[in-house]
Amino acid sequence: MPRKPPFEHACHRCGTAIRADEPPDGTNSFCPTCLDQNLREVERWFLEDYVYFGAKARSTSAAVYLTLFKSTDDVRVRKFAGLSIYEQFMFATEDLAMLYFALRDCDRRSVLDTFLGFEVNPATSNQWQDELQANDDEVLERLGLVKEGVPVGWIETIEPAQAIDALRKAVGDMRAAAHHRTVAGGVMVKSFNKLKHGFLAAARGDFVMPATAKREEWVTTLMVNRQLGRLVYGQIEVTEAKLNEFVGTIESAAAVSAMLILAYLRSTGWTPSSGAPSPN
Ligand SMILES: [Zn+2]
Fold this sequence. Notes:
By secondary structure, the chain is mainly α. It is built from eight helices and seven strands; from the N terminus they run E-E-H-H-H-H-H-H-E-E-H-E-E-E-H.
């Protein structure tokens, strides 16, 4: 039987009893229904901010690491900066997955509620990729952003024809992100997860497998396949050209997030006001 938390609170709005591990401290508490209502009230303000702050976090970090990479000839620092850019890329794909599920489920729970509780795992990555197999407009309808081929809520500032093209392109970018997460058994995610809980990467050139590789331009991540009893090396290319490409992809992901959130806000009847966020 689940343990019963020791303290009783009352919902500040409807009076429903709530049990919690912390004793009442004079601050208002709310039951799940009233909390959902509160989150829905806050989410518009949060999402307006997210468009030009949270959604850009990965591209901002990636740009900092790219500057670091270009600023030095120290091979280890360059390898660190390069790996960090790939890590930001993986985070950017997680952000997009979170946004997809938040929009898909927004009738059942607020977008902010999904954001606050979201944790990506291999099952959600695979489900995300499966659901993106549908055609662009089906996906957009599922997200509540398009109805019968027409974007919901869009008016004057962007012509509907351009809006639908941009939304379809956003689905294509999401599909590419989902593919990166799941390709080859999710090797990229597994590899970069090894950096989250202990930086399991090696800068030494003799960890590089290809004999022809320029060793200063590759860094190795370490994983283990226990079933086969093998140490598995991930080879990551850290050249300026490759990193520029990934920084560009991260910037696109930020733009896609911003654009989908604006589309969602539009679909709820929101219109840009003075000082309105811009996806740029
Ligand atoms: Zn309540």
